Each structure stands twice: as C-alpha cells, then as structure tokens.
C-alpha cells in the first residue's frame, strides 16, 4: 500500500494532547500519504481517540501543529454510530449522501460492500451492534472522502465484517485515499503501518 | 443549498416522529390552558383580562419543555461530530435544525392560541392577533430555548438549567406577544407595534442564536 512520492494528506508535528487535565501525548509526529493505512494501537485511555478527534479538528491540541485537509475531505467514524432509531437504513444513508455531497456511489452499492443490502428498509433502532457498525462504515465509503478517521471500526464486527472492512480499506488506499484507525484488536490489514501509543 | 434542504427535511421528519413529536408540547400547552381558569375562577372579565398573558405564558413553557430534546440526542449518538465535520457552516446547520424542529413541534401553537382566546372570551379578531403574535414569536422562542438546550446538552437534569437560562431571555417576546393580544382586546391601537416588536425579537434571534448554539455545542465536543 505504500506509494513513495505521493503528497501528504495529513501531517502532524510535535503534537501535545491533554484530556481532562492529564497529558496524554507529547511530541508526536505523523505524516500520512495518500494510499497509506495507519493503525493506532495501545491500551485503553492511552489517547488514541483524542488523537483521532484532534486530527479531525474536534479537539484543539495543547501544542503542536496539524496540517489537515479541508473538512470536505475527512470522513469520521466515532465510537458512536450516529444512527437514529426511528430512521430506516436507506433514509439515513440517503440523507448523509445528500448532506455530505460528493458521492458517486449509490446507497445500495455502499450497503452491498458490507453485505447489508437486505437491511435497507430496517429501522436503525432494530439493528444489532455489528449491523449498526456496518451501516456506519457504509456511510464512510459512501462519503467519497479521501481521509478516513476510524475509531475502533471493528469492535462489534464479526469475522466476515472485519474481512469486508479490510477489503474496503484496501480498495480505498488503492484509489488514492488514506485511512487512520484506532484499535485494540488486530484488524488484519496487510501493509498497514502501526503507531503504538504508550500506557 | 441542497445539503441544507436535505438537513431540513431530515430534522423535520425526526422531530415530527421522535419522542412524542408534536404531541408533547401541544398537550402541555393545552393542559396549562385548561387548568388556569380552574385556578383563577369563572369570572368572565378576569379571565378575559388574563387570557393573552396566560396563553403566551403557556406557549413559552411548552418551548422550554421540549428544548431538552433538541440537541441532547445528537450529542449522545455522535451525530454532532459528523455535523461539525460535514464541511457545511456549523452555525447554519444549527439554524436549520432549530427551525425544522420549531416548525415540526410548534406548528399547533398559534392554532391552540386562537381557540384558547375564543374560549377565554376574547373576540375572534383579538384571538387572531394573539395567534399571529405567537406564530411570530415561535421561531424566537424556539431558538432561545435551543440555545439553552445546546448549553445543557448531555447534562443530567438539563431541564432545570434550560429553564434558568432560557426563561429570562424569552421575557421580551412574552411581553410583546401578550401585549399584542391585550392591545387587540382594549383596541388601544398598539397591537401592530407589539406584533412588529415580536417579529423583531424573532429576527434578532435568527441572527444571534445560531452562532451561540454552534459555539456551545463545539465547546461541548472538546
């Protein structure tokens, strides 16, 4: 997945992050080129989520610089799936496609990437945790955005779900995108680089 | 623009269907209006004099009652993060969401005011003026309540905080809207001025409240 001379999608210099009065990360540097996948590992509470949120611009770093692309190029998956219980899967994804723009893929196609096309008419409140995660991942794919920031993308997923996720990530990187994912399970992404967070 | 139109449609549908939708605040409003005469007594002249105030006040309370719902779900389920990162102006998103919510939830309020006005003994014309005043007040009331809801989003007992923050800010529109109704009853000729002041409050809230809501929600995400 590495591409030598590709431009950096996001670069981080001397980053210091605080959370709740505690220093989580100091002097962190990271540069991600298009075509690369990065996995952030480390124990609970080591700052992976805060780092991802800082990359997206949701959290201001205590010190350091982040050069990030415009928000229109960032697709963010938090620990929550941002699905409304009363909305059907299709309505939810149609809304996000219209709202975020830039999608060339149809909702049906994005759902089929995660093998949940049959859930299209189901209300989000009646999905299992793993199914909800798949819908949220389908939203990421559907956004057509270059940089994916994924917080524990595979946590509730079964083996097949993880394989589909790895496939989607590989496809995205091959198409010139980049992925940064925080996780404490083995994602099984070939060619992904790892950044270990201290305890 | 089509993105914001999609947002309006979605937020309208969610507010319409979710958690009691329109029925909650409308029932609250009606209950307050049905109970007040029992407490005040049956004297028609007293009821007539009190009508504009009671009707406007009941609507104000119903906006406070529903404000907790406006942003707390989005803050809890991660929707807020996606809105912030959507690339659209976040203040505009907050404005569109608040207006969609206000339209879905408070559309019966002018109707209730019209019927209540007649039931309290106001003339049809005065009731219409009061209903119009509350229709003009609705966006302002909803946005101020939304601002308080944004400050309190995700907190326990948010309702108390919302009432403490929003009620003082809603005082001017309460005075003007009830004033329009009273002026129409007494035919003092100042009903039009009160209606304009009510509209001015809502317009000011349209400009100021979204920025405040956006700032409050962004601070919440930090």
TrEMBL record, chain B:
Short name of one Pfam family: CcmB
Main location: membrane
Membrane-traversing stretches: 12-40, 46-64, 99-122, 128-153, 160-185, 191-217
Subcellular location: Cell inner membrane
Molecular functions per Gene Ontology: heme transmembrane transporter activity
An individual GO BP term: cytochrome c biosynthetic process
Signal peptide segment: none
Keyword set includes Nucleotide-binding: no
UniProt entry tagged with the keyword Coiled coil: no
Membrane topology qualifier: Multi-pass membrane protein
Gene Ontology cellular-component annotations: plasma membrane
Keywords (A to Z) from UniProt: Cell inner membrane, Cell membrane, Cytochrome c-type biogenesis, Membrane, Transmembrane, Transmembrane helix, Transport
Family: Belongs to the CcmB/CycW/HelB family.
Protein's job: Required for the export of heme to the periplasm for the biogenesis of c-type cytochromes.
Name under which the protein is recorded: Heme exporter protein B
Taxonomic lineage from the root: Bacteria, Pseudomonadati, Pseudomonadota, Alphaproteobacteria, Maricaulales
């Amino acid at each position: 997945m590495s591409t030598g001379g590709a431009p950096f999608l996001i670069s981080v210099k001397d980053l210091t992050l605080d959370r709740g009065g505690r220093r989580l990360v100091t002097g962190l540097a990271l540069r991600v080129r298009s075509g690369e996948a990065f996995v952030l590992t480390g124990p609970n509470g080591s700052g992976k989520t805060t780092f991802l949120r800082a990359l997206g611009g949701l959290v201001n770093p205590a010190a350091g610089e982040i050069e990030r692309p415009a928000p229109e190029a960032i697709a963010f998956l938090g620990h929550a799936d941002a699905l409304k219980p009363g909305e059907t899967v299709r309505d939810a994804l149609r809304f996000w496609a219209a709202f975020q723009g830039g999608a060339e893929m149809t909702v049906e196609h994005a759902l089929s990437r995660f093998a949940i096309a049959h859930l299209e008419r189901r209300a989000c409140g009646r999905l299992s945790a793993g199914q909800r995660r798949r819908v949220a991942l389908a939203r990421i794919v559907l956004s057509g955005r270059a940089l994916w920031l994924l917080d524990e993308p595979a946590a509730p997923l079964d083996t097949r779900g993880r394989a589909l996720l790895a496939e989607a990530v590989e496809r995205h990187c091959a198409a010139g995108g980049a992925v940064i994912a925080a996780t404490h399970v083995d994602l099984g992404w070939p060619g992904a680089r790892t950044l270990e967070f201290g305890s | 623009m089509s993105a914001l139109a999609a947002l309006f449609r979605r937020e309208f549908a969610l507010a319409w269907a979710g958690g009691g939708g329109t029925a909650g605040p409308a029932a609250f409003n009606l209950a307050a209006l049905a109970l007040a005469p029992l407490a005040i007594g049956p004297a028609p002249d007293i009821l007539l004099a009190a009508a504009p105030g009671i009707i406007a006040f009941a609507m104000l309370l119903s906006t406070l009652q529903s404000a907790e719902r406006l942003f707390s779900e989005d803050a809890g389920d991660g929707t807020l993060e996606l809105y912030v990162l959507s690339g659209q102006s976040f203040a505009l998103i907050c404005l569109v969401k608040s207006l969609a919510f206000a339209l879905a939830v408070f559309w019966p309020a002018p109707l209730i005011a019209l019927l209540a006005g007649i039931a309290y003994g106001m003339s049809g014309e005065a009731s219409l003026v009061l209903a119009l005043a509350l229709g003009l007040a609705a966006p302002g009331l909803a946005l101020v309540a939304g601002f308080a809801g944004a400050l309190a989003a995700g907190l326990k007992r948010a309702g108390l905080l919302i009432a403490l923050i929003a009620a003082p800010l809603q005082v001017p529109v309460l005075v003007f809207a009830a004033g329009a109704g009273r002026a129409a009853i007494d035919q003092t000729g100042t009903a039009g001025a009160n209606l304009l002041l009510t509209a001015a409050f809502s317009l000011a809230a349209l400009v100021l409240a979204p920025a405040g809501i956006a700032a409050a929600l962004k601070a919440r995400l930090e």
